[in-house]
Amino acid sequence: MNDVPEVRITKANHRDINPNGDFILYWMTVFRRSHWNFSLQRTVEWAQSLKKPILVLEALNCDYPWASERFHRFLLDGMADNLSYFQSHRISYYPYVEPAKDAGKGLLISLSEKACVIVTDDFPCFFIPQMVKSVAANVSILMESVDSNGMLPLKAADRLFLTAYSFRRFLHKNLPDHLTQMPAREPLKEINLPPLKHPPESVFKSWPLASHNILATGSRSLSDLKIGHDVKPVTKGGPLTGRKILNSFLKDRLTRYAQRRNMPEENATSTLSPYIHFGHISVHEIFHKVMNTEGWFFDRLSERATGSKRGWWGVGESAEAFLDQLITWRELGFNMCRHRDDYDKYESLPEWAVETLRFHEMDKRDYIYTVEQFENGLTHDPLWNAAQIQLVREGTIHNYLRMLWGKKILEWSPNPRIALEIMIELNNKYALDGRDPNSYTGILWILGRYDRPWAPERPVFGKIRYMSSKNTARKVRVVDYIKKYAPKKIA
User: Fold this and answer.
1) Is the same domain home to 31 and 46?
2) Of 148, 171, 200, which closes a domain?
3) Structural domain total, the chain
4) Which residue, 35, 142, 275, 306, has most beta carbons within 10 Å?
5) Do 37 and 87 sit in the same domain of this protein?
6) Are residues 325 and 375 part of one domain?
7) Domain match, 5 and 143 both
C-alpha cells in the first residue's frame, strides 16, 4: 500500500501528537466509506507508525442546514454498511446519531483527550470547513484533514479556473502525475493492528452509540429526532447500494451514455451523484472500474493538452463523455469552492453576467411565482412542473431538465438574486446530491458561471444563455416524462 500523497494532507492545527493516547481517531465526516478512502488510509498509516488501534467516529448531527428524514435515512443506510464492515475487520466503529440540537456538543473534544492524533476529511463546501476549523482550534492534539474528493488533489490547482476549457487543459497537463497515486482499494485489508483494549466507556455513556433500530429500519425510527419530517426518504443509501448501481451502469448503460444521457425518457445516466456526494462511493473507484471496462492502459492518454472534451483518454465515446462529467465538470466546482468563500453568492458570478442581469433586472416578466408555487409545481408549464415534482418525489431531476428548471426560475422570479435564492433553497432541501460543489456549479451556471455571453440579447436574460420548454420538447421526448410526474389528483 503506497503512502498517502503529501499534497492531499493538510495540518488543521499545529498541535503535537500524543504518543500516550489510546487510539488513532478517524473523524469520518464526508468520505463515509471503508474503500478507496485516503483519509482512512492516512489513519492506518498513523496506527501502524504508533502501533495503536483505530477508532472511527461517524457522527450525524440533527441541526445541519436542511436536515430532513430524506438525508438522514440515506446517511444512516451508509452507517449500517460501515458498522458491518468495520466489525468484520475488528476495527472499533462509533456511530453516533444526535437526538436533538447540541446533544453531541463536547463529544469530539472528549474523544480527543484519549486519542494520539485526529484524522478527518477535507471538503471545501457547505458547513464542513468551518466545523473542522473550529474543532481543530479546540483540541489539544494534532489534527489532519485529508483530501479524498477527486482525481486531482485540491491543492494541485493553485489558481481559480473560470471555464471548463481552461480547467480541462490544466487537467490534461497535470492529472497524469496523480493517476498513479490512487487510494488503497481496502486500506484495512491484511493489516495487523492491536485491538482497542480500553474503549472510552465514559464517552459512550454520555453519548450512546446509535442503536441497531435507527441504523437498520425505515423512517419510523426517525420520528423522535429533531429534524425536518416533511421531506421523506426516497431511495436507499450506503456504499453497498452505490457499488451495485455503479456495476449496473457499467454493464447496462455506459455504452448508451453519450447518445442518450440527455433524453429524459431514457435510463442512460449513472444516477451515482447522491452516493458520490455523501461519500458512499469514491470517484477513484468509479474511474478504476470504468477504465477496466474499457480495457484502458495508461499509454492511451493523448500527449497533447488540447482541452478537448473528446479523445484525450483514449477510450470509447461514451466513456469519454462520462469522464468529462465525472472529473472535469465535477472538480471544476471543487476548484471554485477551494478558492472562493463566496462560491454560492451572486457576487461570485462573472462580471459580464452581473452586468447583463443588472441591465435587464427591471424587464417585464410574463409570469412571477412565489417560492411556494415553485416548490409545489404550480406554474403554467407542465414540463417545468414535472421536473420540480421529480425533485420532490425522488430527490433528483434528470440532468438535462435540471438546466431548464433553473432557467425558468430565473425567468419567472422578481429578480436574479431572488432566483438564485429559490434555486438554492429548492435544490438543497430536496436534492440528494445538493449542498455540494457540483450542485452549486449547476445552479450558478444558470446565471452565467463557466459560460459566455449569448446572442441575441433577450428580455430578462440579457446575454445569459436562454432555454425554453418548447425548444426542449422539440429536442427530446418528454411526453411520458410529463405524464409520469404529473401532479397527483386529489380524490
Assistant:
1) yes
2) 148
3) 3
4) 275
5) yes
6) no
7) yes
Domain assignment present for residue 205? The answer is no
Boundary (domain end) residue, out of 148, 167, 185: 148
Domain CATH code at residue 18: 3.40.50.620
- Dihedral of the alpha carbons of 264, 269, 272, 273, in degrees to the nearest 10: -60
317 and 436 both lie in a single domain? no
Q: Is residue 75 part of a domain?
A: yes
pTM reported for the whole predicted model: 0.96
- In tens digits, the chain (491 residues) has pLDDT values of 679 999 999 999 999 999 999 999 999 999 999 999 999 999 999 999 999 999 999 999 999 999 999 999 999 999 999 999 999 999 999 999 999 999 999 999 999 999 999 999 999 999 999 999 999 999 999 999 999 999 999 999 999 999 999 999 999 999 999 999 999 999 999 899 999 998 999 999 999 999 888 998 765 679 889 999 999 999 999 999 999 999 999 999 999 999 999 999 898 999 999 999 999 999 999 999 999 999 998 889 988 888 999 999 999 999 999 999 999 999 999 999 999 999 999 999 999 999 999 999 999 999 999 999 999 999 999 999 999 999 999 999 999 999 999 999 999 999 999 999 999 999 999 999 999 999 999 999 999 999 999 999 999 999 999 999 999 999 999 999 999 998 876 54
Please tell me whether residues 245 and 140 are part of one structural domain.
no
What is the residue range of 92's domain? 1-148
Burial class (CB in 10 A: 0-12, 13-18, 19+), 429: buried
* 21 part of a folded domain: yes
Residue 472 is part of a domain; what is its CATH number?
Answer: 1.10.579.10
Shared domain for 124 and 144, answered yes or no, is yes
Flag whether 425 is in a domain: yes
CATH number, domain of 330, equals: 1.25.40.80
